[in-house]
Amino acid sequence: MTKQRAAIIKVMRENCGHFTAEEIFLLAKEEYPSIVRATIYNNLNGMVEEGSIRRICQSGHPDRFDRNPMPHEHIICTGCGKVEDLNIPGLTEAMEDATGCEIEDYELVIHCKCPECRVV
Amino acid sequence: MTKQRAAIIKVMRENCGHFTAEEIFLLAKEEYPSIVRATIYNNLNGMVEEGSIRRICQSGHPDRFDRNPMPHEHIICTGCGKVEDLNIPGLTEAMEDATGCEIEDYELVIHCKCPECRVV
DNA sequence: TAATAAATTTAGAATGATTCAAAAATAAAT
DNA sequence: ATTTATTTTTGAATCATTCTAAATTTATTA
Question: Which of residues 4-23 of B touch strand C (CB under 7 A)?
Fold first, then answer.
């Protein structure tokens, strides 16, 4: 456990949501000003591999990192771009039925309007 | 309609599956040797925007392009890496129920073993 | 606690997919 | 056939991310 890693973990604990590496870098810099981007990537990649966080990828955007390590769904608002968590009950079973095998992992990103951006 | 665009469309019609821009580039080159990568990207981006193909993104890999323009699901095999289509009936309704709003689009990528890579 | 080994961080260059800007070529419209 | 609009080409640029090697820090062992 290094001071740099501690800073990254602190930043992710104290800020809610789905971070880009750059966002974490800027926040971690406030905790530990000499920290460098490669350290952010090293640690985030390690955490993803050990399964303590998740990676969310969206084409044309940098990857985001999600504090919630369990497979779950995401909404990306087509109005404001905000990323939110969602849980669809029974989804894993539906996937198992459709594939006929064990689901090792999955990513579901839904594009729709978040409550604040809804017109109707 | 240019000869380059025709070559790209021909390549996508005659080869099944989910192409990277680079794969399309190499195949299109056989049809039209002077074609250039930027033309591939121009055309693919245009087709995605007009909704005649879809983009699949996978972190750490180049984007893939899917001839099937309808929202549907994908399996990426954790054994061989192959990308296959899948359809999960009732998924859209489950998403509508969970979000309470109209689903404009979605991407679902499932990581599991394809039939050829299954051990059990 | 000192010495050694192992892991992590740093700096900065490198990579790779993709985009961009400007010029050249081609297609469409008059 | 001319003009206008669109597309392609070239090659440089961008951006997120990874890599390499050296320096530093942490953990382990004596």
Answer: 20-22
pTM of the model: 0.92
Please indicate if any CB of chain A lies within 8 Å of the CB of B116: no
Q: Do B88 and A101 touch (CB under 8 A)?
A: no
User: pLDDT by residue (tens digit) across A70-120?
Assistant: 989 999 999 888 899 999 999 999 999 999 999 999 999 999 998 899 887
Find residue B77's DSSP bridge partners.
B112
Yes or no, beta carbons of B102 and A95 under 8 Å apart = no
Domains and CATH numbers, chain A: 3-66 (1.10.10.10), 73-119 (3.30.1490.190)
The packing angle between helices A3-14 and A21-31, to 10°, is 110
Of A89, A107, A110, the CB nearest to B109: A107
Q: Which residue type does A28 have?
A: A
Residues in chain A: 120
Residue type, A100: G
A85: number of Cβ within 10 Å:
14
